[in-house]
Amino acid sequence: MDSFSIILVVVLLILVILSAFFSGSETSIMALNQIKLDNAEKQGNKSAKIINSLRKEINRVLGVILIGNNLVNISASALLTFFVIKKFGDEYVWIGTLLLTIFIIIFAEIAPKSFAAKRPESIAYPASRILKVLTKYLGSFSEMLTSISNSLTGIKNNENYFSENLNRDELKSVLEKETKEVDKEEMDALKSILELKELTVEDILIPINEVLKIEIGNKSHDVPNDKDIFLPVVKRNSDEILGFIHSKEIEQFNDFSGDNIDFLIEPYYVPEKTHLFSQLKNFQKNGKEVALVVDEYGDITGLVTLEDLIEQVLGRFDPDEDEIGININEDNSVTVDGSVTIRELNKKMDWSLPEEPAKTISGLVIDQIDTIPTGNVCINLESYNIETSKIEGNLIKEIKISKNT
User: Fold this and answer.
1) Rounded to an integer, what distance in angstroms lies between the CA atom of residue 272 and that of residue 278?
2) If exposure means fewest CB atoms within 10 Å of the residue's CB, which of 16, 297, 362, 389 is most exposed?
3) One pLDDT digit (tens) per residue for the chain, 405 residues
4) Distance CA 138, CA 383 (A)
């Protein structure tokens, strides 16, 4: 092989390597995880900072990459055609074109792009400085070609996928993915924080008919000593709530006599449609830990505490309370109290019972049959069998639920 042939082969190899560089760079810069990239930049990685700056003008960068890639591929094809014609004649041009095409597809397209997709940092970080220089000098030409292309496709020049922030659903999808670097409990807590914007006070309140109240002047209160709760204080023979007292202070309350109620925590009212995140901020702003929930007519529907909100994020403070109202049977069915919320049951059993419009299991039954049952009823809802097992007056006290497999 003469010196001319050797030089031509070397140039062809260089062009194929450049083609592989542009192909791998394109894939790697698109495949990089934005969250990891931002974290690397915060830790002082200069290449990550350059890549983020390139992503801000991704249309110009992709145009430069395509210009470079096509330029080297066309040059390689022209150079090989010249070599084949000179050495072997016109009739062998198609063989040379075929061999070069296969060579480029394997070594300048599939191989570098596959590697870049699996290990994007290995390609994008070293290539970032070269792309920055090329974009600086060829960016205007790339932008002109991109504008012509966009006029044909109807895409605006300022549209940039990487400039779009994650919305709430996308962020929740990220948190759904398991990772060894973050504990499951931490991931669940982060997901629960996002849910504070979606849930309302109505979703977690304690119904007012289930709230233990104490009367002024009545010293026979059945209040558990080990419970850390707030108790509404009412006038004797009245439902008017005068304020709250902490269960730890019940003994001092029993020793009190008179009409002065200044020692009570003043009632604080919140609408039942208040989002949990807003209510958490309200508790913080007002320095309160307990509030009465009212509906649109001003009627008291329940009670909510700061502890209830925090438990939405961290889970129950008292592990024994997890099992209250939800009992799993040997046949994998579940017996629940009618007051248990649908959301709580779904979360515990990983079910998907509809959480709207009813909030509790008893409300779900009433919503489905459109009346208050006078006797036990059984309904089928999607893949769930729901059967009431205990009814007292107008209240559904106990329900058995099983899921069809």
Assistant:
1) 12
2) 297
3) 678 778 888 898 999 999 999 999 999 998 898 888 888 989 999 999 999 999 888 888 988 999 999 999 999 999 888 888 888 888 888 888 888 889 889 999 999 999 999 999 999 999 999 999 999 998 888 888 878 877 877 666 555 655 556 677 777 777 777 666 677 777 777 878 887 888 899 888 888 888 888 887 776 666 665 567 888 888 877 788 888 988 877 776 666 655 667 778 899 999 999 999 999 999 999 989 999 999 999 999 999 999 888 888 877 766 555 456 888 888 888 999 988 888 888 888 888 888 888 888 898 889 888 888 888 889 988 889 999 988 888 888 899 998 887
4) 60
From 203, 225, 234, 397, select the one nearest 308 (Cα to Cα). Answer: 203
With contact defined as beta carbons under 8 Å apart, do 335 and 389 qualify?
yes
> Is residue 16 located within the same domain as residue 84?
yes
pTM: 0.60
302 and 331, same structural domain? no
For residue 206, which of 114, 313, 293, 83 has the smallest C-alpha distance? 293
DSSP codes, 10-72:
HHHHHHHHHHHHHHHHHHHHHHS-HHHHHHHHHTT-HHHHHHHHHHTTHHHHHHHHHHHHHHH
Six-digit token pair at 374? Answer: 């006078």
Query: Looking at the domain assignment, is residue 180 inside a domain?
Result: no
Q: Does 187 map to a domain?
A: no
Q: Check if the beta carbon of residue 151 is closer than 8 Å to that of residue 56.
A: no
Domain interval for residue 29: 3-164
Q: Distance between CA atoms of 127 and 117, rounded to whole angstroms?
A: 14
Closest CA to 360 of 256, 175, 205: 205
Closest CA to 308 of 355, 335, 344: 344
> Is 335 in a helix, a strand, or coil?
strand
Q: Which amino acid is at 354?
A: P
